[in-house]
Design a protein that fits this description.
The complex is a heterodimer.
Chain A lengths: L2 E5 L2 E5 L4 E8 L5 E7 L5 E7 L5 E3 L5 E5 L4 E6 L8 E8 L6 E3 L3 E6 L1
Parallel strand pairs in A: 2-11
Antiparallel strand pairs in A: 1-3, 3-8, 4-5, 4-9, 6-7, 7-8, 9-10, 9-11
Chain B lengths: L4 E3 L2 E4 L5 E6 L6 E8 L3 E9 L2 E5 L6 E5 L5 E5 L8 E8 L8 E2 L3 E5 L1
Parallel strand pairs in B: 2-11
Antiparallel strand pairs in B: 1-3, 3-8, 4-5, 4-9, 5-6, 7-8, 9-10, 9-11
The chains are: A mainly beta, B mainly beta.
């Protein structure tokens, strides 16, 4: 069975500061991991995904995430926050059958000017 | 724009009624997934169809059903609606049965009064 836990339902950072959104996964098989972003009144948009290639994954909008098997983590980072990064962020895991995605409860990112 | 379309964007109905939500996947995608997003439950996987066949079931109520048609569009039918069914319903599509990225539509916002 797969699941993800997102620590911190709300994160606030100042504009220009480091963004760190935490995700820990649980999986009985080698996982595939995803980060999605949801802007207000919109659907989910893929930021990046890990599919067992490089452990450091670069995504869109300057975001990246590092897969750490020893820590069962897939934290999302961005060196410098922009106002436009304010959104809800979801971590998701899927097993290698790909039939089901399990989403975390989401982290709401607020960027303070 | 993900290429996934959903209609209607908004739906207001009364308890006990039945509604149908429609989803058209990205061109070439054979898999369609349905999700429910509510404040108290977060993002919940409901059901997946692949090339017209049901492939995976999540937390879908018996009052809900779905199907995928030969042209690959999908419909989610919600019946005997309750106040608690008010939520955002997302459709996503992906290329094949094994793991690939899921692309999300803009969602249908359902309000049950």
């Amino acid at each position: 069975a797969q699941s993800v836990t997102q620590l911190g339902s709300h994160v606030s950072v100042s504009e220009g500061a480091l963004v760190l959104l935490r995700c820990n996964y649980s999986s009985s098989v080698p996982p595939y991991l995803f980060w999605y972003v949801q802007y207000p009144n919109q659907g989910l948009q893929l930021l990046l995904k890990y599919t067992s290639a490089a452990t450091l994954v670069k995504g869109i909008n300057g975001f990246e995430a590092e897969f750490k098997k020893s820590e069962t983590s897939f934290h999302l980072t961005k060196p410098s926050a922009h106002m436009r990064d304010a959104a809800e962020y979801f971590c998701a895991v899927s097993g290698n059958t790909g039939n089901q995605f399990y989403f975390g409860t989401g982290t709401s990112l607020t960027v303070i000017p | 724009d993900s290429g996934v379309t959903q209609t209607p964007k908004h739906l207001i109905t009364a308890t006990g009624q039945r509604v149908t939500l429609r989803c058209s996947p990205r061109s070439g995608d054979l898999s369609v997934y349905w999700y429910q997003q509510s404040l108290d439950q977060g993002l919940q996987f409901l059901i997946q169809y692949y090339n017209g066949e049901e492939r995976a079931k999540g937390n879908i109520l018996e009052r809900f059903s779905a199907q995928q048609f030969p042209d690959l569009h999908s419909e989610l039918n919600l019946s005997s609606l309750e106040l608690g069914d008010s939520a955002l319903y997302f459709c996503a599509s992906s290329e094949d049965r094994a793991l690939t990225t899921q692309y999300f539509g803009p969602g249908t916002r359902l309000l049950v009064l």
